[in-house]
Amino acid sequence: MEHKLQIYNTLTRKKELFEPVNPPHVGMYVCGPTVYGDAHLGHARPAITFDILFRYLKHLGYKVRYVRNITDVGHLENDADEGEDKIQKKARLEQLEPMEVVKHFTDRYHQNMDQLNVLHPSIEPTASGHIIEQIELVKEIQKNGFAYESEGSLYFDVEKYNKKYNYGKLSGRRIEELMQNTRELAGQEEKRNPFDFALWKKADPKHIMHWPSPWSEGYPGWHLECSAMGRKYLGETFDIHGGGMDLLFPHHESEIAQANAATGHDPVKYWMHNNMITVNGQKMGKSLNNFITLNEFFNGTHPSLDQPYSPMTIRFFILQAHYRSTVDFSNDALKAAHKGMTRLFDAVHLAGKLKPSAQSSVDVRSFGQKCYAAMDDDLNTPVAIAHLFELAKIINQVNDGKERLTEEDIKWLQSFLNTFVYDILGLKDEKSEDNSELIGYLMETILKIRQEAKARKDYATADRIRDELSKLNIVIKDTKEGATWSFK
Fold first, then answer.
1. What is the reported pLDDT for 67?
2. Which domains does the chain carry?
């Protein structure tokens, strides 16, 4: 089938047919994490969202250069131009070098992404590794008259820029509103206007991370890194820039301003933003102290969790909502996601065991077309998953003899499910991973210990083992021949 991928462009506020700047090559930049703490569920959503896009574009035959950065300098507390660098603050509290903090949490982030089956980007640059490029970009902006120096720091002149371009074209904000909302903020003495943002900050004597520049010994502003690295690896104009909705303003708005100020044109054709993970209606994040780290989900140690949740349960949970919709966390929603995913994988396995008939009584290929149509419609994964559940129902009906499929249709079905479930949606069947032999050995040992407890009439211990395993979605059944176990 011919694919016409539609992408919702935040810049134009409508769905648009995806047409690369330089087909079949696609340049894609996604804002990665600031690595000063463990990744939480809010970090998982953009990673999974743009992993789906990366996978689907490659499936459609595009040659994708996917750049996802690591922010390791310049991101101050509360996204401000005053205050302490987030990584420097962590380093000071832990009495570590900042790059020790960066290495530690970058490694943990990568581990979490691998657990979620998020593909590695083509390039993963760091802000600290591109100081020269950022300084050169500031020079261009200053040369074109859109930056001014103040006490060794460089600021972007938003008011002057707005007279020639439109500061607010992405977010829909007007400069008059910015004047009203930022006029009373403290710590703005160096700026001509409170809403001007830092391009380069002069480091105070206590600041650990700093570099030489034509203006001062200092460090780049947070917004600068993505502009500099995106241009270096993808060119002055590239296809897709993505990130969370919380980055739309001021980060991405400022990126557009910096690019126009330096080159005279917009840097990106399609802007894409995933919506937030919420807890009781509030954004999940470190600043609100309501976040749950991915490791806490995986081991079930957070007090808000009823049980551990596997990486694929988290991935499936996120994919069940459209990336532009909010997703509200709850234990019930995660448990439902696990049950749904289990049902889907059961059907995938069953498809490999179906017995063919001379004729088909149902058009299974139409469901494949529906799944692809959903993906072409702005990556509508929940609709695609709904069609997969319909297909799962048919697979069970064929197995029960209520519907029939030819050998050719069964082969198509198996190939389609393997491609769509594993390659496009990026799901893994955790039951059939390579550690199954080890799990079997451990469960045999645990059941033996439980049987010994029952033999001593220590039923409290036996029941506790059963209940704890149940939290891991493992069911114990006592039979006359002994105890058996299975996943829920």
1. 98
2. 21-274 (3.40.50.620), 279-431 (1.10.730.10), 434-487 (no CATH)
